[in-house]
Amino acid sequence: MVTKRRKMPAKGVGKMAVVIELPILPVTSVGSFPKPPYLQQARIQFRRGEISYEKLHELELQATREVIAMQEEVGADLLVHGEMERGDMVEFFADQLEGFGRKGLVRSYGNRYYFKPVITGEIRRTKPMTVEMWQFAQSLTKKPVKGMLTGAYTIYDWSFDEHYDPYDKDRKGRREAVLALAHTINEEAQDLRKAGALFIQIDEPAVPTHPEDIEIAHEAMEVMTKGLDAFVITHMCYGDLRPIYQRLVQFPVHQFDWEFTNNADKLYPLIEQFGYPPDKFIGLGVVDVHSRRIESVDEVEQRIRQALRYLRPEQIFPDPDCGLKTRTWEEAKAKMAVIVEAARRIRSEIEAQGGPTKLRFTFDGGVKIEAIGGS
To answer: How far is CA 6 from the centre of its chain?
Structure first.
């Protein structure tokens, strides 16, 4: 389904609202896609000084074109740029912020390593970090492309700290550092929005691993989203949501994106016991990004149907459990195609029953979301 985008008069003199329509159960992805072999090789060559940055960047753009084209081919509705220019999700931002240096390689997971950042001074943002690549990706498609950011708490937690005081008993040093990072992410998000990004995702996988810091994480999210008239998503994986769920769902975001494929046994009991805010949305992980096995359409369809026992159809955005960068290109494409087909099947049923057919997003200094269509 082609995304409808139009402008209309908004509140205030000289302002125009932007209206986006997506089908009900819009299919999206969490963020990363696998880098093609030619780009993996180019990254190695660049680190060795064998090719220029200009050559590397040319290949990053080429890979981004392929990611956008693949998502359009399978029929995804809300796209991502694939993060072809990024290695590690924290290292990418730390390398561009003042106040950070690098330590040695540390293991992230499996056989993947990254240079762990270290905070050595006051944290400042001196330039946009993601805007240019987002603009390029958005220029390739009429469908909306999400702006992709790593959240302040995760950047801090996955870095060493040699400047603030991370070990004080009242955690003031940790809070100071996280909030300094939160201001830089808010600046970046504001620049993405000015460039035209309507959907902005702030990844915070570290938050569930430290329930003792939930108030710091909440305050940081308030800072990161302050004044941001975009549809804000936060993706969280790892850890256990049970100790923080009731506070977590109060975060100032429109959508939480969670791993329902591997954590349904923990997440649905929470929703059943404590409810889920009726004005918030769910990024519903319906395929396992850690497995090479391609799920059947029937499997994914059943996972969406399970969610419909607890949530309205207009609240659900089917997607993978997490980023797909650890899969092969063929596996990633096949998993996305399965999600799209499962969503189409259920979408047809909802429409036949007189349910809503579209989600309308109106951006006019705020964000208004309506389920429309149906009888």
So the answer is: 24
State residue 2's pLDDT score: 43
Out of 3.40.50.150, 1.10.150.120, 3.40.50.720, 3.20.20.210, the CATH code matching 25-53+75-85+259-353 is 3.20.20.210
pLDDT value of residue 4: 56
Share of the chain above pLDDT 90, in %: 87
The tokens 């009888």 sit on which residue? 375
CATH of domain 87-248: 3.20.20.210
- Tell me the angle at which helices 297-308 and 260-274 cross, rounded to the nearest 10 degrees: 10
Residue with tokens 């029929």: 75
- Classify residue 142 as exposed, middle or buried by CB count within 10 Å of its CB (0-12, 13-18, 19+): exposed
pTM of the model: 0.93
Q: What is the rounded CA–CA span in Å between residue 350 and residue 308?
A: 11
Percent of the chain with pLDDT strictly greater than 70: 93
Strand partners, 82: 32
Q: Are 264 and 290 in contact (CB under 8 A)?
A: no
The DSSP code sequence of 182-213 is HHHHHHHHHHHHHHT--EEEEE-TTGGG-GGG
pLDDT digits (tens, 9 = 90+) for 1-54: 445 556 555 554 446 899 999 999 999 999 999 999 999 999 999 999 999 999
Tens of pLDDT, residues 190-224: 999 999 999 999 999 999 999 999 999 999 999 99
Continuous H helices in 9-151? 37-47, 53-74, 91-94, 131-139
Give the integer Cα–Cα distance in Å for 28 and 26. Answer: 6
Q: What is the pairing mode between strands 199-203 and 358-363?
A: unpaired
Q: Within the chain, which residue ranges are assigned CATH 3.20.20.210? A: 25-53+75-85+259-353, 87-248
Bridge partners of residue 279, in order along the sequence: none
Average of per-residue pLDDT across 174-187: 97
